[in-house]
Specification:
The structure is a single chain. This protein has 7 helices and 11 strands. The protein is of the alpha/beta class. The protein has a single domain, classed as Rossmann fold (3-Layer(aba) Sandwich), CATH 3.40.50.1820. The strands form 2 sheets. The protein has an 8-stranded mixed β-sheet, sandwiched between helices. The chain has a 3-stranded antiparallel β-sheet with strand order 7-8-9. Strand 7 and strand 8 form a beta hairpin. Helix 2 crosses helix 3 and helix 3 packs across helix 5. The two termini are 29 Å apart. The model has no long low-confidence stretch (mean pLDDT 86).
Length: 264
């Protein structure tokens, strides 16, 4: 069952979808998704929709939504930043808590690609998170894999005339750009998070190679960490068999953690 929802954040409307199992036991796990730069509507194979449907079948509640400035939510992209995305995420999570009322549940945060720049900082807030899932995480990147076709200068956004950085069809404001390119403490925060952590990588994804090496080399020192490599998969798991494996591995892991098969 897919249930549309809308909430107000900063006088702007955020729209999203809850995937809710038709039959579920009290205390169903809840997965909240944090997207990469382009958001929910540019995923190959509509991967978040496919995950939501599989979650429904598996007794898992799944939440997907558009940040302000993306998709069908209000605002323009050049007005937003990592800060507003975290604000949006906290507001949606608070909405989810209200939906669950007093029902005890396990909350999982899922960060896709550089969505980890939202997912990991959420761990510092007053949220009871049972597990962290990262698909194609980019904590580190080697400069030789940076797309040379990306423009190196700012422009004026045609309508607002704001100074922006054009990136793959997006107008990024100066604050947002600084937040994107400056490496913060996300990797150390990831390491310190004491609950179970699942990281999934594509075997043919140069963008995450440096991150995979770093996490894989230190996995024995990172409490509760599990790494999965999907052979030949690209960054967005654009092949249907890669998408299917990604979703199956993730759903099974969430169920195992929720049922206590993996130590919390």
């Amino acid at each position: 069952m897919q249930v549309p929802f809308q909430i107000e954040v900063g006088c702007n409307t955020i729209l999203g979808i809850l995937h809710i199992p038709a039959k579920r036991a009290p205390g169903s796990p809840v997965v909240f998704m944090s997207y990469g730069l382009n958001g929910n509507r540019v995923d190959n194979n509509r991967i978040s929709v496919a995950f939501g449907r599989k979650a429904e079948e598996s007794g898992i509640i799944f939440c997907r939504f558009d940040y302000r400035g993306l998709g069908v939510s209000e605002k323009d992209f050049w007005e937003i930043s990592m800060t507003t995305k975290i604000e949006d995420s906290l507001a949606v999570i608070e909405f989810l808590k209200g939906c669950m009322q007093a029902e005890k549940h396990s909350l999982f945060i899922l960060g896709f690609s550089d969505g980890l720049r939202i997912a990991v900082p959420l761990l510092k807030h007053d949220i009871d998170v049972s597990g962290l899932i990262l698909w194609s995480p980019i904590f580190f990147i080697e400069t030789k894999y940076v797309d040379s076709s990306i423009p190196k200068k700012f422009e004026r956004e045609p309508v607002s005339k704001e100074v922006v950085f054009p990136f793959k069809g997006l107008w990024i404001n100066q604050k947002h750009l600084r937040q994107q390119v400056v490496l913060g403490t996300e990797y150390e925060d990831f390491r310190k998070f004491s609950k179970p952590k699942l990281s999934v990588f594509g075997g043919n994804d140069p963008a995450t190679l440096a991150t995979f090496k770093q996490i894989n080399n230190g996995v024995s020192d990172i409490h509760g960490a599990k790494n999965i490599m999907i052979p030949d998969a690209d960054h967005l798991y654009s092949g249907s068999k890669w998408t299917q494996q990604l979703i199956t591995e993730t759903v099974n892991w969430v169920k195992d953690v929720s049922e206590g098969s993996i130590d919390k």
